[in-house]
From TrEMBL:
Record bears the keyword NAD: yes
Protein name: Glu/Leu/Phe/Val dehydrogenase dimerization domain-containing protein
Source taxonomy: Bacteria, Bacillati, Actinomycetota, Actinomycetes, Geodermatophilales
UniProt organism field: Blastococcus carthaginiensis
Coiled coil: none
Homology family: Belongs to the Glu/Leu/Phe/Val dehydrogenases family.
UniProt-listed SMART domains: ELFV_dehydrog
Domain Glutamate/phenylalanine/leucine/valine/L-tryptophan dehydrogenase C-terminal: 140-349
Length: 354
């Protein structure tokens, strides 16, 4: 997907010098409904880097929400700064006022660098902040169902490759054991997988190994990639599947929670050429947006979990289409997502009586 030609509907630059807020909100599409996407708080090198990231992320959200079967378009926001030093109540509330000014075209939630508590503050200035803490009637930590959805996608990949939807006795290499990665490890251990992990934060690895002593640790991502494995699960930041990594992988499946895993569009074809099944990231990590979207209807964890279980069936559809058409699963997923945007989105042109 080329973000420079992907037809974003609206890009808003937000500035409030008194609080230090510098933010960008990108609305890619509202064909299926309001544009839902999280707010990323990150110390970008410059504004150009922030713009490139928000355009790319918001376009991916359109496809993610479409493939998840949600009546939502795609959007994303980035706050430029270091959340460890720049996060203040004034800044977050100023950001909330910009979100409110869009009148519901953009619905925000958590992302890298923001938390449920942050969204509680943003929500004091806007009706369109979701993924709030349970104390404020929100859905709480969306990483719970993000990891669950990744696990369902991995089960589907196992079914497609090995004829059984189980990771028992398979070696799964998990790169990044923050919130999503650590929840994913829980599911994998329970399913009987042999798990190897790594993370830039040694404390995160130690917390996982304290909970599951049988989990092994690799020194770093480069070592993890070269460790014999059946499944590789990138669960940190994007761009993990670059040319060097793809060439070094030893497994049959890639399925992880990170966004924008493909370092370039050619990566998907390189994986296909090597016989490695790639489970598209925006398909399998959609459990989080499913959880957040359910908050709009009065949150029910059981209902949201049931919806996230559907990722298994959608993944099987994507793999079958990829095989039938001789394309990568990334291309097949894009086609299914765009098809729904085109077919369902056109219904907005049918005028209803007032």
């Amino acid at each position: 997907m080329d973000v420079l030609t992907s037809g974003h509907e609206q890009v808003v630059f937000c500035s409030d010098p008194r609080s230090g807020l510098r933010a960008i909100i990108a609305i890619h599409s509202t064909a299926l409904g309001p544009a839902l996407g999280g707010t990323r708080f990150y110390p970008y090198a410059d504004e150009d880097a922030a713009v490139a990231d928000v355009l790319r992320l918001s376009a991916a959200m359109s496809y993610k929400n479409s493939l998840a079967g949600l009546d939502l378009g795609g959007g994303k926001a980035v706050i430029i700064g270091d959340p460890r030093t720049d996060r203040t109540e004034a800044l977050l509330r100023a950001y909330g006022r910009f979100v409110e000014s869009l009148g519901g075209r953009y619905l925000t939630a958590c992302d890298v660098g923001t938390s449920n508590a942050d969204l509680d503050l943003v929500g004091r200035e806007t009706r369109y902040a979701h993924g709030r803490s349970e104390a404020y009637g929100g859905c709480g930590d969306s990483s719970v169902l993000t990891a669950y959805g990744v696990f369902q996608g991995m089960r589907a990949a196992a079914q497609h490759c090995w004829g059984t939807p189980s990771l028992a006795d398979r070696t799964v290499a998990v790169a990044g054991v923050g919130k999503v990665g650590s929840w994913l490890v829980d599911h994998l251990v329970q399913d009987g997988a042999d798990v190897v992990v790594t993370d830039v934060d040694p404390g995160a690895v130690e917390r996982v190994r304290t909970r599951h002593p049988q989990v092994r640790a690799a020194a770093d991502t480069a070592a993890l990639v070269r460790t014999p494995h059946d499944v590789y699960a990138p669960c940190a930041l994007g761009g993990a599947l670059d040319e060097e990594t793809v060439a070094a992988l030893t497994g049959r499946i890639i399925c992880g929670g990170a966004n924008n895993q493909l370092a370039d569009p050619e990566a998907a074809e390189r994986l296909r050429a090597r016989g490695i099944l790639y489970a598209p990231d925006y398909l399998v990590n959609a459990g989080g947006v499913i959880q957040v979207e359910d908050e709009r209807h009065g949150f029910s964890f059981d209902r949201a979990r049931a919806k996230a279980s559907g990722i298994f069936d959608v993944a099987l559809r994507v793999f079958a289409l990829a095989d039938a058409e001789g394309v990568s699963p990334a291309v097949a997923a894009d086609r299914l997502a765009q098809e729904r945007i085109d077919s369902v989105g056109r219904l907005a042109t049918i005028r209803l009586p007032r």
